[in-house]
Design goal:
The complex is a heterodimer of chains A (about 120) and B (about 400). Chain A has about 120 residues and is α+β, with helices and mostly antiparallel strands. Chain A has four helices and six strands. Chain A starts with a strand and ends in a 7-residue tail after the last strand. Among the domains of chain B are: about 90 residues; about 120 residues, no CATH class; about 55 residues, no CATH class. Chain B is elongated and about 85 Å long. Classes of the chains: A alpha+beta (about 120), B mainly alpha (about 400). Chains A and B meet through helix 3 of A and loops of B.
Chain lengths: ~120, ~400
């Protein structure tokens, strides 16, 4: 079963993080990613650019409306994600708990991916 | 044993085993319901089978196969049917009950859903009973159960006893659910509402089950002891008119001695073998109250010391409030009063109520009256309101 682990943190705090601390976080992420690749859980993952680069698209009265910024202004922003293959929710939670941002004040939303019916 | 008793005592254990066999909450519940209906139709005429539990499990399993067969045409569940046909055990497996408890009390479910699911599946209460006990509309409660079961299935919450690395945390979560069920029954049992008193009995039954299933864990014993010691006094907490009777005024001869003895023995066990847990400490305090021959013989210094230890592992202003009252009774009212003034608990009626009581004992009547009025502005429970009003009238009455 696949789970999407969405990494939320305050991008302003992260931007203000001193260099050595940020380098350390990056290295922790590399080690973490290598770990879940090795264990066979990793399916995909990426870090996102900050929400200042975000664009939202919707349609109003049949007309495309493009606006600057994220879908909703929130205190914490989606900063990256992993797609992992897990036995069950407990395994997904234990992997989510090891994501380096958790120790830096971030939180992870764990969402099961809907499986397509097999034919 | 009649079918009603059997349902009450065995429902959760049979269901736990069925869920593992069929891998689906709803299918297991529906099939077990079918089996009980079959029993209701057949047993009165043919007489009950030699082993009713085995009969129910076997029948429920066959009903599950029937239900799966009906679905098979559309979905292809041949493997599941084959697995079910291969099942041979006909007795509930204790480990299944434990799996079911941990699944129902999984932290990924909302607390109120954990409580509802636990009462529905492990205790076998029906939706109407649970809704009545928690004063929520039946459709709300039903919806809560449907959502929780859908999440278990769709997010794949496992049906297993958690591993050692997280076991302690998960046991805590289970104990919290059980204690919540108990408190819901206990705190609202003023007015002898029988449905809600049943919640205390269910919580104690769950506590016994946990002690039996997790013999190496100490806190389940502490919680069971705490619930038994509170429950032993339940009948004396209100008078015939439903008014509150304080601990010091309760008729101790009517306390349930058997429950006190059992609770006290469990406290001793729960306190051994390591640093004490929060439930064990609270139970030890309850035991000191329950075993005092009279209110005056209460070992207040020991109680104050236990609250001190509790505050160390479980710091909270409510614990501090209780500790301040114990110190007032042990070392002097003024000392307790000074401690109460350092506690910050906005909106909590028991803080001004405790101040009022100490001031009343000190005969500082005007200050006591003001504190009672403050407490009355915050209280929500009717019986507590009537009690505070009675006390306010006492301290404002002119002395004759």
């Amino acid at each position: 079963m696949q789970y999407l682990l969405m990494i939320y943190d305050d991008e302003k705090t992260r931007a203000k993080m001193p260099e050595p601390q940020r380098d350390k976080l990056v290295q922790e992420y590399q080690e973490f990613t290598q770990g879940i690749v090795k264990s066979g859980h990793f399916r995909a993952g990426a870090r996102l650019q900050p929400t200042s680069t975000s664009t939202t698209v919707r349609e109003t009265n049949g007309k495309r409306v493009t606006t600057d910024g994220p879908f909703a202004e929130t205190k914490e922003q989606l900063g990256g994600y992993y797609l992992v293959e897990c036995r069950d929710l407990d395994e997904a939670i234990s992997i989510a708990a090891r994501i380096p941002s958790v120790r830096a004040g971030g939180s992870i939303e764990v969402r099961p991916v809907m499986s397509t019916p097999q034919r | 044993m009649n079918l009603g008793d059997l349902h009450r005592r065995e429902y959760g254990r049979i269901l736990a085993t069925l869920i593992r066999a069929v891998g689906d909450f709803d299918l297991a519940e529906d099939s077990l319901q079918d089996a009980f209906e079959a029993a209701l139709a057949q047993w009165p005429e043919q007489g009950p089978p030699e082993n009713p539990v085995a009969w129910l499990i076997a029948t429920a399993r066959h009903k599950a196969i029937d239900r799966l067969r009906r679905r098979t045409l559309a979905e292809g569940k041949r493997e599941e049917i084959a697995a079910l046909l291969a099942e041979e055990e006909d007795a509930p497996v204790p480990l299944d009950s434990l799996r079911l408890i941990f699944t129902c009390c999984h932290p990924a479910l909302a607390p109120e859903a954990q409580v509802a699911l636990t009462l529905r599946t492990i205790c076998g209460l029906d939706t109407e009973e649970i809704a009545r006990a928690f004063l929520v509309p039946v459709p709300t409660l039903a919806q809560r159960l449907v959502r929780a079961k859908a999440k278990i299935k769709n997010a794949r919450i496992p049906y297993e006893v958690p591993g050692d690395s997280v076991l302690a945390d998960r046991v805590d979560a289970v104990l919290a659910v059980v204690y919540l069920v108990f408190n819901e029954g206990y705190s609202a049992s003023f007015g002898a509402d029988l449905v809600r008193a049943d919640l205390c009995a269910e919580a104690i039954r769950l506590g016994r089950l946990l002690v039996e299933l997790l013999p190496a864990e100490r806190e389940p014993r502490g919680l069971l002891a705490l619930m038994l010691l509170h429950d032993a006094r339940r009948a004396t907490r209100t008078d015939d008119e439903g008014a509150i009777v304080l601990l010091e005024d309760q008729d101790r001869s009517r306390w349930d001695r058997a429950k006190i003895a059992e609770g006290s023995a469990l406290v001793e066990q729960a306190l051994q073998g390591g640093p004490p847990g929060a439930y064990a400490l609270q139970a030890a305090i309850a035991a000191l109250h329950a075993r005092a021959a009279s209110a005056r013989e209460t070992d207040w210094p020991q109680i104050a010391a236990l609250y001190g230890v509790l505050a160390g592992i479980h710091p909270s202003p409510v614990v501090e409030l209780n500790r301040a009252v114990a110190i007032a009774m042990a070392d002097g009212l003024e000392q307790g009063l000074a401690l109460l003034d350092t506690i910050h608990l906005p909106g909590y009626h028991l803080l001004p109520a405790a101040r009022a009581d100490l001031l009343r004992r000190l005969d500082r009547r005007a200050e006591a009256a003001a504190a009672y009025r403050e407490a009355l502005g915050l209280v929500t429970n009717d019986a507590e309101r009537r009690f505070l009003e009675r006390r306010l009238a006492e301290v404002t009455r002119s002395r004759g």
